[in-house]
Amino acid sequence: MSLNKCLVSSPATVANLGCGFDIMGLAIQEPLDRIGVKLNSNREIRISEITGPEGHKLSFSPRENLMIHVLQCFTKKLGTKQGLDITLEKHVPLSSGMGSSAASSGGVLVAANALFDNPFNNDDLVTLAMEGEKFISGAWHADNVAPCIMGGLVVIPNYEPLSLVSCPFPEDLIVVVVHPHFELPTKEARAALPKEIPLGLAVKQWGHVAAYVSSFFLQDKNGLARYMEDFVIEPARAALIPGFYDVKNAALENGAIGCSIAGGGPSVFAFTFDQDQAETIASQMALAFKKHQIECDRFYSPINPNGCHLID
Amino acid sequence: MSLNKCLVSSPATVANLGCGFDIMGLAIQEPLDRIGVKLNSNREIRISEITGPEGHKLSFSPRENLMIHVLQCFTKKLGTKQGLDITLEKHVPLSSGMGSSAASSGGVLVAANALFDNPFNNDDLVTLAMEGEKFISGAWHADNVAPCIMGGLVVIPNYEPLSLVSCPFPEDLIVVVVHPHFELPTKEARAALPKEIPLGLAVKQWGHVAAYVSSFFLQDKNGLARYMEDFVIEPARAALIPGFYDVKNAALENGAIGCSIAGGGPSVFAFTFDQDQAETIASQMALAFKKHQIECDRFYSPINPNGCHLID
Given pLDDT bands bounded at 50, 70 and 90, which one contains residue B2? Predict the structure, then answer.
């Protein structure tokens, strides 16, 4: 080991992206967590410090903190009993639909991997990070951890075995995310979904998925606008987010090409190619939430091509 | 009108292509129908001649022949009462899953369009050709008519309004099609499908669709092999095709990267990149059918990039 401490920046992510429920996600530029991993002289993996605006919501307990859990999985896979101290500066809001748990698990794994001279590749790291997702929500899913670790836009078609497909994306595509100040736990968002859907609706959705993915490859802006629509998940979850359709309309009326729920919500994201309009879209979306007595944070940036990466 | 007769070659097509049920199809090089449209001096649209190995199965009656029906739609849309004589040399087997009705309607429309100096674009022609599909099976679908008219590989994500996305494909991809000698009407193939499917299965399928489409764009041969698998339709329809799994295994054991039902069946198609192996794959698939007392025709070719086109 050439270093005894590694610090990484780990981004928020948006999963589903409209019609691509559970199979795609992308990384954004902001908010970012900062996560450090340092060797210690005992055999314990522990949190030494949690700071940042969201930090006070997190536990230091190994039974509750997913970062300790994923590093235990990491050292077990590596076959070491080395003790590690974790520091976390938490900015990605919890239970927001912005991949907060993915930022924690992705970041701490990329930092530990760098500390041990990169024994694991992206597939390994994404698999380990899914242990964190399972720890938190009970479900294996990679649509936040994969883009968090790899950056860019990632399609995750398969879990047995895991497969990850990086897609191209227009560099001038701006992702606007508005985060309303209430929590929507992933479990609750999952519980709102239908157990079965009509075959015709499934076909309509996978037709959109096919054309949406094609539009990313073709850099077809009209196609992205036309095909991102989600016929299955958004209608089932919209009622969990007060004012959702007002927020969506505010985005579309102000130049967004599309708008839907970020991951399991309650954050709402929109796409635009009009850089000058991004601030207006974000503030009008926030204003629509405010009419429902909900305060918001807002973010906008191009897609983050890098994902987790070392700083310092 | 610069001509008073147009003759076109109109290809067989394979729809669904594994996981892409109802949303994608491609054109092949063989078999091909030859379809002529000629001005006549009365106001009638009629069939003047039907030849070819499959021709004897078709009716000359306006109430039964879809070519008359689609040309009636064509002339109505064009606002003319011009009479037309149709000739058909029918090679694409009927009720085979190889787009026989699409070859008839696509070909006759492309011929008529040329005769009238191309008043209609591909979207118009595909929409008109769907009138033929509806006439035959009761269902609007474009996954055969679109690739028949346009050539290549086409994704059809949407019908309201119709949208058509041409995808790239590897030039060395060989499509093997084996046509067993029994008919499976589209209506019967549709009746075998479940009305509802579990959401988890739908997600698994649209994950595959996303990665399958990506693999065509990336020319990723391993991806095509990995992601073409259909979890929903093939399992429901396999029982309608005696020996289907033996035929599929014969294809896979002889170098095919994947194999599934062509359209609504009973034809079975396979993909391979091994040109030398295509004949063996086709004959071994046919041999597997023969063990179930079913004779076959077999075809193999690269994807047909042209679709319907004028000959002479």
Answer: low
% of residues, chain B, pLDDT over 70: 99
Query: Domains in chain A, start-ordered, CATH in brackets?
Result: 5-167+305-311 (3.30.230.10), 174-302 (3.30.70.890)
Question: For strand B258-261 and strand B268-272, is the pairing parallel, antiparallel, or unpaired?
Answer: antiparallel
Q: According to the model, what pLDDT value does residue A280 have?
A: 98
- Distance from C-alpha of B70 to C-alpha of B109, rounded to nearest angstrom: 7
In 3D space, the residue among A16, A12, A90 whose CA is nearest the CA of residue A47 turns out to be: A90
Chain B residues near residue A202 by CB distance under 8 angstroms: 197, 202, 205-206, 232
d(CA A76, CA B171) in angstroms, rounded, equals 46
B157·A24 Cβ contact <8 A = no
CA atoms within 13 A on the CB side of B309: 9
> Could you say which of B21, B157, B217 has the minimum Cβ distance to residue A217?
B217
User: With contact defined as beta carbons under 8 Å apart, do A294 and A180 qualify?
Assistant: yes
What is the C-alpha to C-alpha distance for residues B143 and B106, in angstroms, rounded to an integer? Answer: 12
ipTM at complex level: 0.95
Q: What is the pLDDT of residues B129-145, one digit of tens each?
A: 999 999 988 888 999 99
Expressed in percent and rounded to 5, the helix, strand and coil fractions of chain B are: 40, 25, 35
Cβ density class A165-190: b for 16+ within 10 Å, e for less: bbbebbeebbbbbbbbeeebebeebe
pLDDT class for B199, splitting at 50, 70, 90?
Answer: very high
List Cα–Cα distances, A149 to A16, A229, A304, B1, B81, in angstroms.
17, 26, 11, 62, 64
Query: Amino acid identity of A217?
Result: F
Q: How many angstroms separate the CA atoms of B143 and B263, rounded?
A: 9
Q: Which residues of A touch B199 (CB under 8 A)?
A: 193-197, 232
pLDDT at B3 over 80: no
Token pair listed for B80: 């003319």
pLDDT mean over B241-267 = 97
